[in-house]
Specification:
4 helices; Ig-like_fold; 2% helix; 5 domains; Immunoglobulin-like; Immunoglobulin domain-containing protein; Cell_Adh-Cytoskel_Orgn
Length: 844
């Protein structure tokens, strides 16, 4: 008589009705590719939902290995336990506590047929084969049942080897609600059969669990076993776990059922192959690795032959070499599109799987590196690049806004002698012609937008950050403050992990003794002292973003200078060996030391000296020892940064307390061979004495960052800015245009270049008008006034009367307004025959 078959839980697994109708699930790992890691795989198996999922317990994962675990009947058994269909899941062994190299944990959700809630009642059985390599007695090698997540608190049941909960790792044991019980069987390297009986009640704390290890088979519940009562079972996922100084471990034949026998006695497989899992259609892109997977049950085991058809109806042809239950199409091509099926055959007959379609389209070009925004000086060159991966031959077209750029057809956009008009958004369209070989249209992709910012060439003092309380800093923690200062963006920010205490702004600038260096008035930044290593109470680090003018990229060239005043409190007799008090320039996150490309100050541990020093590229081989022992004095640091677009072509020279007034001084310490990039500045002080900074200046010359940034505004300072040689006196006429230097200052004109002076003289009735240029910032020690005369002998002030005549000139001088000024002379009283007007400049 032929046996009757029925479908169990829509899995496609057909089992005889006789005695096995209550098998709920059988996971023999038969549908998994041999040798592949378990996470990510999700063949359709009754009782499970979705794929296996990795958990953060190490980078190693279980792999499916050929051949099932071979279980030999133990003493007293009346029937052998036959292995499954040819594979098992196993972890390698490892040594060490939880870390990135240990083998880890994976889990898979259970479907509703296997899920247990607080209200589930009745009897469930679970069985599995288990083998431990038994290299060491310690570790965690368990099959686990969790509810909600794989957090330990959600672990409802577990069985295998563990030293958790006071249990010993030298015996096989199990846990229910995190209370562990030994089976009394010593751990070894043999294959063992675990059978678990869950007797479930809807009443709280009324569930009973019995575990047998290698029980007698064939007569339903055997005697013996270890029972625990008063439990609350609830679970919705199953996990395989191996970590914490664990041996290698393997599992196989995970079965769920409603009786002892249907999870311990092998099912009778059909004589003719029947597919328990079907292939799944694949939609993707040319170049993908396509995997089709199917599995058939039969006795004897089936062989496989994959077939392909153009339309899925007829014309089926065998695929050469495709004789496993898995078909893999590596680096797939457009020709792999079509319909697939597999035929499973044994001596008794064959079965054909479902037909599935493989649908592959040509992918868009893949952008590996998007274009990055660039900031450059006016007149310099700029590059914006993209890195893309294509299957065929790529072509490129760059755009500015929506307009294509003529000739810009490579992966790098080259812009030369950029001017302000070049500012704006740039992007590139990448086209791949690979599809044309199959008469398909080309594919394209548009990159992200990169913005080009153009700023004026560096000249003089570019940025001056004096920490002046009058300039927007309030006394208090620096990290919360955000005054507008040229060269900086946004507010100061505390860096996590370097202590919560921010530097504070304190009144009174640092006093530097060199008379040519004038500090600001009103504030400096300081940090309190601390005497321990990095922890929650030490002083910390703050940083601030630089604006594009101060940012340095790989393409930045030229010479830049930065200077600042620095003082260490040096409360200790000598700096702590771990003292760290530096001004640093980072590219990217401040908390990542690898992003630190320049730093200077005291860093005994990093600089290998208690002298003041500096370092480039966070590299101990690029330290410049300034040779000055650290002390409690105020010191001036000046760094000259020479930037090259050639790799390793950047160099830095640092002076401490240099001579001032004549450009680059002699001496200094130079370190070469660097690659410098940065976009933010940081002030760091931890595990150290208190420290203070002031007067952070950026500029294009040594003098611009060291001499007084608030120069005198008198006539001598003004005339000193022009090439007039010895004709620099107030009453000299350096350019010979008849206008004395003092009047040129009032006019705001160049005393070394002739100019017209007074223009547009006109008389209408009793009114005379004329025009002249006027400075918006005349020298502080120059006084100017309009005067009038009728005889060139005596001149009178505006509004004064003489001989019955009064002349009033408007507007009044000494209220500067840059540009061209129209002056009106109004005559009242007696109208003179002649009128002479003059502008007189004097020094008090």
């Amino acid at each position: 008589m032929k046996p009757t078959y029925l479908t169990i839980l829509s899995a496609g697994l057909l089992l005889p009705a006789t005695g096995l109708a209550d098998v709920l699930s059988q996971d023999s790992f038969s549908a998994y590719p041999v040798g592949a890691e378990l996470p990510g795989q999700g063949p359709t198996i009754a009782g499970y939902t979705g794929p296996w999922v990795d958990i953060d317990f190490g980078a190693g994962e279980p792999a499916v290995s050929a051949s099932s675990l071979g279980y030999t009947a133990k003493a007293g058994s009346t029937a052998a336990y036959t292995a499954g269909l040819g594979d098992k899941a196993g972890f390698p062994s490892h040594v060490g506590t939880d870390n990135a190299n240990q083998v880890g944990r994976v889990y898979r959700l259970l479907d509703t047929a296997l899920t247990v809630t607080d209200t589930t009642a009745g009897v469930r059985y679970l069985s599995f084969l288990y083998q431990n390599s038994n290299d060491t007695a310690l570790g965690y090698q368990m099959l686990d049942l969790y509810n909600g997540s794989t957090a330990d608190a959600n672990r409802s049941f577990t069985a295998g080897i563990t030293n958790n909960g006071g249990s010993t790792g030298t015996q096989y044991n199990f846990g229910a609600n995190e209370a562990y019980t030994s089976t009394g069987v010593a751990a070894d390297s043999g294959v063992h059969l675990f059978v678990v009986k869950f007797d479930l009640s809807a009443t709280a704390a009324s569930d009973t669990i019995t575990v047998w290890l290698d029980p007698v088979l064939g007569a339903n519940d055997p005697t013996g076993g270890v029972t625990v009562t008063g439990k609350n079972m609830h679970f919705d996922r199953l996990a395989l776990s191996n970590y914490d100084n664990a041996n290698g471990v393997a599992w196989d034949e995970i079965r769920w059922g409603t009786t002892f026998n249907n999870v311990t006695i092998d099912p009778v497989f059909p004589a003719i192959p029947v597919f328990e899992s079907q292939p799944v259609a694949y939609t993707g892109e040319v170049g993908d690795t396509v995997t089709l997977l199917a599995s058939a049950l039969s006795s004897p085991a089936a062989t496989y032959q994959w077939q392909k058809s153009a339309d899925g109806v007829g014309g089926w042809a065998n695929i050469g070499g495709a004789t496993a239950n898995t078909l893999e199409l590596f680096s797939s091509t457009y020709a792999d599109n079509g319909y697939y099926r597999v035929v499973a055959t044994n001596a008794n007959g064959s079965d054909t799987s479902d037909v599935v379609q493989v649908d592959l389209a040509y992918p868009e070009p893949a952008i590996i590196t998007q274009p990055v925004s660039v900031s450059v000086e006016e007149g310099s060159n700029a590059q914006i690049s993209v890195v893309a991966s294509v299957l065929g031959n790529p072509t490129y077209q760059w755009f500015k806004d929506a307009d294509p750029i003529s000739g810009a057809t490579s992966d790098t956009l080259e812009l030369t002698n950029v001017q302000e008009a070049a500012e704006g958004p740039y992007w590139v369209r990448i086209t791949d012609d690979a599809a044309t070989a199959d008469s398909q249209p080309t594919t394209t992709v548009d990159s992200a937008v990169a913005t080009l910012t153009v700023f004026p060439q560096w000249s003089g003092l570019v940025s001056h950050d004096p920490f002046d309380t009058a300039g927007g800093y309030a006394a208090g923690a620096l990290a919360s403050q955000n005054p507008t200062i040229a060269g900086y963006v946004d507010a100061w920010a505390i860096t996590n992990g370097f202590g919560p205490v921010s530097p504070v702004v304190s009144s009174g600038s640092l006093a530097y003794p060199n008379p040519l260096y004038l500090g600001s008035s009103g504030g400096h930044v300081s940090t309190p002292a601390d005497a321990t290593a990095i922890n929650a109470t030490n002083a910390g680090r703050v940083g601030r973003l630089l604006d594009p003018r101060l940012v340095v990229s790989d393409a930045t060239t030229g010479t830049r200078y930065v200077s600042w005043l620095f003082r260490t409190g040096l409360e200790n007799a000598a700096p702590d060996p771990q003292v760290y008090q530096t001004l640093a320039l980072f590219n990217g996150v401040l908390g990542t030391d690898a992003n630190r490309d320049f730093e200077a100050g005291i860093a005994a541990g990093d600089f290998s000296t208690t002298n003041f020093a500096f370092r480039l590229n966070n590299n101990t081989g690029m330290v410049g020892n300034l040779g000055v022992p650290s002390d409690a004095n105020v010191h001036l640091f000046v760094a000259k940064i020479e930037l090259s677009s050639v790799a390793g072509g950047d160099s830095v020279t640092v002076w401490i307390d240099p001579a001032l007034g004549s450009g680059n001084p002699s001496g200094g310490v130079t370190v070469t061979g660097a690659d410098l990039t940065w976009d933010r500045i940081a002030l760091s002080d931890y595990a150290s004495d208190s420290s203070a900074w002031d007067e952070i200046r950026w500029g294009s010359t040594f003098n611009s960052v060291t001499l007084n940034p608030n120069p005198p505004d008198d006539f001598a300072a003004w005339i000193g800015g022009f090439n007039v040689g010895s004709l620099n006196g107030f009453n000299d006429d350096a350019d010979g245009d008849g206008i004395k230097n003092g009047v040129e200052n009032v006019f705001g004109t160049n005393p070394s270049v002739a100019n017209q002076g007074v223009t547009a003289v006109a008389k209408t009735g009793s009114t005379v008008t004329f025009q002249h240029p006027q400075s918006g910032s005349p020298a502080s020690d120059v006084i100017a006034a309009y005067k009038w005369s009728t005889d060139l002998g005596t001149f009178h002030a505006s509004g004064a009367a003489s001989g019955g005549t009064t002349v009033t000139l408007t507007p009044a001088l000494n209220t500067p307004s840059a540009g061209s000024t129209t002056v009106t002379a109004t005559i009242t009283g007696t109208q003179p025959a002649k009128l002479f007007l003059t502008l007189e400049a004097t020094q008090p």
